[in-house]
Design goal:
single chain, alpha+beta, Glutaredoxin, Glutathione S-transferase Yfyf (Class Pi), Chain A, domain 2, 2 domains, globular, binds glutathione
């Protein structure tokens, strides 16, 4: 069985869980406690030298980087398709995913926030403002992209969930954690609500994972 190494409230783990659930894949979840720096221990770094979650162990090989894992899952388990059939559609979906994956998440990652606390004296209010700044910058653009697409149904693109929804829903979760006001983003909130009606998304929620506080 595949093993997914992750952490309950890691956005990159969350988006990967959503994709695995949408594909109907069974997997063993291995919790890596980022609060206890388990990801920096030699045992985990032997799996991923970057010391970051998620890691997927499948078919005797080890994959890191959620975007690479998600693309591998899409190629290996093509049904249901989480990318559109046409090149323009695929590029549009990947662009929306990249707003989160390349431009919001990396600057709000734990190690970045720890660095701001340690070397720049950032207190929790400053951290909250930092995170909100980059979430707002990405969400403002995504909101425009969603509003402009008149062929869209209830999800980010087309009539069915795509990888863009997996990225967006996990980032909305992070936005709520950092107390970002979501009222300027009605299309994002509506997409999140539509996705959360699907079991694949609701079952992937951070607080439902075995390593979440109960
Ligand atoms: N680009 C990587 C980023 C992975 C990543 O940063 N994961 C976070 C959790 S969401 C992590 O392990 N953070 C540990 C740290 O910052 O020390 C991916 O998409 O997989």
């Amino acid at each position: 069985m595949m093993q997914l190494f992750g952490f309950f409230r890691s956005g990159t783990s969350h988006r990967t869980r959503i994709v695995m659930n949408l594909k109907g894949l069974d997997y063993a979840y291995v919790a890596v406690d980022l609060r206890a720096d388990k990801h920096l221990e030699a045992g985990f770094k032997a799996l991923n030298p970057q010391g970051l979650v998620p890691v997927l162990v499948a078919e005797q090989f080890v994959l890191s980087q959620s975007s690479a894992i998600i693309e591998w899952l899409e190629g290996r388990y093509p049904t249901p398709a989480l990318l559109p059939p046409d090149a323009q559609g695929r590029a549009t979906v990947r662009a929306m995913a990249a707003v989160v994956g390349c431009d919001i998440h990396p600057v709000n990652n734990k190690r970045v926030l720890d660095y701001l606390r340690k070397h720049f004296g950032a207190d929790e209010l400053a951290i909250q403002r930092w995170c909100a700044t980059w979430i707002d910058a990405g969400f403002e653009a995504l909101e425009v992209m969603l509003a402009a697409d008149t062929n869209r149904g209830r999800y980010c693109y087309g009539q069915t969930p795509t990888i863009a929804d997996a990225y967006l829903v996990s980032q909305v979760e992070g936005a709520r954690r950092f107390k970002v006001d979501l009222s300027p983003y009605p299309n994002i909130v509506a997409v999140d609500q539509a996705c959360m009606e699907l079991e694949a998304f609701s079952r992937a929620a951070p607080l439902l994972q075995s390593d979440a506080p109960h």
